[in-house]
Amino acid sequence: MKVSGREFTTISGVSIQPVYGPEDLRGFDFARDSGNPGEFPYTRGIHADMYRGKLWTMRQFSGFATPEETNRRYRYLLEQGQTGLSVAFDLPTLMGYDADHPMSAGEVGKCGASISSLEDMEILFRDIPLGEVTVSMTINSPAAVLWAMYLAVAEQQGVSWARVSGTLQNDILKEYIAQKEYIFPPRPSMRLVTDTIEFGVRETPRFNPISISGYHIREAGSTAVQELAFTLRDGMEYADWALARGLEIDAFAPRLSFFFNAHNDFFEEIAKYRAARKIWAYAMRDRYGARSERSWKLRFHAQTAGCSLTWQQPYNNVVRTAVQGLAAVLGGAQSLHTNSLDEAYALPSEQAVTLALRTQQVLAHESGVAATADPLGGSYFVEKLTLETEAAANRYIRQIDEMGGMIAAIEAGFPQKEIAAASYRYQREVETGARTIVGVNGFRSDDQPIELLRIDESAGRRQEAKLAALRQRRDNQQVRRTLDALSRAAEGSENTMPRILDAVRAYATLGEIMDALRAVFGTYQETAHL
Amino acid sequence: MTQPIRVLVAKPGLDGHDRGAKVIARALRDAGMEVIYTGLRQTPEMIVNAALQEDVQVIGLSILSGAHNAIVPRLMELLREKEMGDVKVVLGGIIPDQDAESLKRSGVAAVFQPGASLESVVEFIRSVV
What number of helices (H) and strands (E) belong to chain A? Predict the structure, then answer.
């Protein structure tokens, strides 16, 4: 990408040469730096046969309005050949408020599905067999509660917890760093995350209790290197807390999963995924002493970059998404979400999400890229860029280590300030025309209107009515007892998950459960860093 | 020497996506304005109180969650109640055309949709204050 008259850099500002050759890889050691696919340090991928053994999971992030409407969308996507589900929750749910809370006004069902109780979760997965479909849930501060609701629905369907498979995002550190959907202060939040990891080790061996996410860090404006470094350092922070809880590294590390962005700069993104696997493999083996190969392997979901989508000339977004999705596949992603062309405007229409899914299906079944593991391995350019990305990320990781870890770094505002500076730099480059965005600051034309999904205020009213009926119908004494027991557990040091499950089964609402925890843990206000 | 323009940049509602608000705040500051940033999750009441206390000429709202039709009319009503009708309100974010039109009719001075340049925001504010 050209950013000035003569210098070429990646989107993150790494200098790019006109051509690369053997001299750029002097000192490159195949066994140390690369290895074969399926072999340490997994730079080339975590499976020897890669997508021949199993294609990536096509998992479109989806949810809107009421659980009834979202359930219909899920069943449609599964009929269209999607192979996993990914739940988008609305902002009240993400912030731990019931649909009838004053702070929820105008927000119910707008950015995802509204879930206030186990009843809503039962509707969300009606006629969807949780023993067969893997489900990813994008939920963070209230993750333990939504996970408990999910496990309770699995129980009702007669599916044993040993069989349920899926992923909980549950990555609170990146909320303080980037997305800002935090509720409690960092330390009690980390205690809840550690509770879920510990519970998962004991009860749900096939479920990923956390998806350590760079996606939102990148969307907040970070560079690729910052996304990589902050995400992996977050992963180490979770490992440190789980170890402090007394868990064995090889008991939980295989269940840590990751989530990265797939942005515009094709080769830089591929280098980022390759470097991620390598850094993580060495960290798990050498920093943490993990002995199981499964602990060394970094598995990740990728989503194309929402922030790269343009409002102008929205059909161009189909092309951007295809290129970004291809980078994720060439980088060895285990699952992929491709954005819909209308997502700079609204949640996707059914037509738009179908086209996004078809984009993945074309990559998988027509392009031939799934036939060979790490087809770009050995490219002078890609190997060099992988080494440079790794070195730059390791510098950040050391810096955060020296600050005393990620929580200390967050409290000092360090990652927040680095990201804000990078995002302002990027916007200035767009502003001055140093960076071209097709249809926005170059190649402009009149926009063609597109059909959009609109979510009206009736979703909020329907959710409020359902909640009112639930509060009448349930055993309110049982609700009170389970909430009191949860409060006591939160005040002490026992694992909160069994108590949360009891409250959920009694149909305590999300807001009631989160209020019980807010009363014990307090809430967090950040100092805004401009 | 004229006094610098004072702007309150605010993030109402539950949405935590503050990239745009922060970029705009910096751009306005670089353009010589005095910028106060409220931080996240502000109610219309909190924003109007902050605007009154800080004696700003402009309130800049950033909303990406789709909650603008609930939040912005309430804020405009509060400004009228407090006789702060001379404070200009500009709105940025994911605001569909039809909503932008109705919000302008309710008194919003300008709506900046995705892709709007920083310069266009700066120029607009200078032109109305």
Answer: 20, 10
Q: What is the mean pLDDT of chain A?
A: 96
Q: How far apart are CA A109 and CA A90, in angstroms?
A: 5
The answer to whether residue B29 scores a pLDDT higher than 80 is yes
Domains of chain A: 27-432 (3.20.20.240), 465-521 (no CATH)
- The model carries a pTM of 0.96
What's the confidence (pLDDT) of residue A447? 75
Domain count, chain B: 1
pLDDT of residue B2: 78
Kindly list the distances between the CA atom of residue A247 and the CA atoms of A164, A201, A238, in Å, as whole numbers in the listed order.
22, 9, 12
Q: Is residue B1 included in any domain, yes or no?
A: no
Handedness of CA A458, A464, A467, A468 (dihedral sign): negative
Q: Provide the H-helix boundaries in B82-112.
A: 97-105
**Nearest in space to A219 (alpha carbons), one of B64, B2, B55:** B64
- Residue among A148, A260, A279 at smallest CA distance from A207: A148
User: Which residue's structure tokens are 């805004």?
Assistant: A528
Residue B32 in domain = yes
Query: CA–CA separation, A317 vs A355, rounded Å?
Result: 11
Domain span holding position B78: 6-128
Q: Which residue of B has its CA nearest to A176?
A: B16
Q: What is the ipTM of this complex?
A: 0.93
DSSP 8-state assignment for residue B10: E
pLDDT recorded at residue A448? 77
Q: Mind listing the pLDDT tens digit for each residue in A370-414?
A: 999 999 999 999 999 999 999 999 999 999 999 999 999 999 999
Sort A348 into a burial class: Cβ within 10 Å, 0-12 / 13-18 / 19+.
Answer: buried
Contact between residue A467 and residue A66 where contact means Cβ atoms under 8 Å apart: no
Say yes or no for a CB contact (<8 Å) between A179 and B16.
Answer: yes
Distance CA A132, CA A487 (A): 35
Which residues in chain B touch residue A420, judged by CB atoms under 8 angstroms apart? Answer: 22, 26
Distances in Å between the alpha carbon of A360 and those of A63, A132, A298, A340, A366?
20, 21, 22, 12, 10
Which chain B residues contact residue A179 at CB under 8 A? 16-17
Q: How confident is the model at residue A83 (pLDDT cuts 50, 70, 90)?
A: confident
- Residue B24 in any domain: the answer is yes
Q: Which parts of A266-379 fold into alpha helices (H)?
A: 266-282, 293-296, 316-330, 350-365
Task: Look up the CATH number of the domain holding residue B77.
Answer: 3.40.50.280
Contact check, Cβ <8 Å, A107/B25: no
Chains A–B, number of C-beta pairs less than 8 Å apart: 100
Longest dimension (CA), chain B: 41
CA neighbor of A70 nearest in space, from A18, A15, A127: A127
Q: What pLDDT, in 10s, does the model give residues A288-315?
A: 999 999 999 999 999 999 999 999 999 9
Cα distance from A264 to chain B (closest Cα, Å)? 17
**Inter-chain residue contact A427 with B118, CB threshold 8 Å:** yes
Choose between A6 and A149: higher pLDDT: A149
**Model confidence at A5: pLDDT above 60:** no
Rounded CA gap, A515 and A492, in Å?
Answer: 17
Buried b (16+ CB within 10 A) or exposed e, A167-204: bbbbbbbbbbbbbbbbbbbbebbbbbbbbbbbbbbebb
pLDDT value at residue B1: 56
